[in-house]
Amino acid sequence: MKKHALSLLAAACLLAACGGGNKTPPADPAPAPPEVDAAAAQQAVEQPAVEPEKDAHGCLPSAGQTWSTMRNECVQIVDIADIQLIDPANDTLAVYVILSQDKKKAEVFAADLPDGVILNASKGGYKSKDGKVRLTKGKGKDEWKIRK
User: Where is the signal peptide (predicted)?
Assistant: First the structure.
């Protein structure tokens, strides 16, 4: 019986010694932070922030702003346009139109037109003073066509 007890005790010791196989290895220590050159840090602090470029009217083209002669302010034409059309000269571009409150004038913004072109109300729509740009009302409720 003593031999049996000694055998069981030896087996238990062996099993206990082998049971530590589930341990995960210790994680690598965190890398040391990079050394910062004092001169480089000072230079970074002293550099002024980059100012966005403004146009002649103080508008920020990088923010989508353009000058509206009719409203006499910078506008984001994409957000406030009363009429949006596909540009007949290039179907990948758009033409945007702002109407005056009294609907007697329209300002047209297109890639191939200078700034905003002011059109005056005429029969069937709007036209520029020189007649080169016309915005005409179609048969549908919101149907407009532009000729440049």
Answer: 1-23
φ, ψ for residue 112 (rounded to 5)?
-100, 15
Give residue for tokens 């690598």.
28
pLDDT in tens, 50-67: 777 888 889 999 999 999
Distance between CA 79 and CA 67 in Å, rounded?
14
Which residue, among 98, 63, 65, has the nearest Cα to 80 in the 3D structure? 98
Q: Is the C-alpha dihedral spanning 122, 125, 126, 127 positive or negative? A: negative
Structure tokens at 63: 């923010």
Dist. CA 104–CA 122, nearest whole Å: 8
* Pick from 63, 87, 93, 85: nearest CA to 75: 63
The DSSP letter of residue 95 is: E
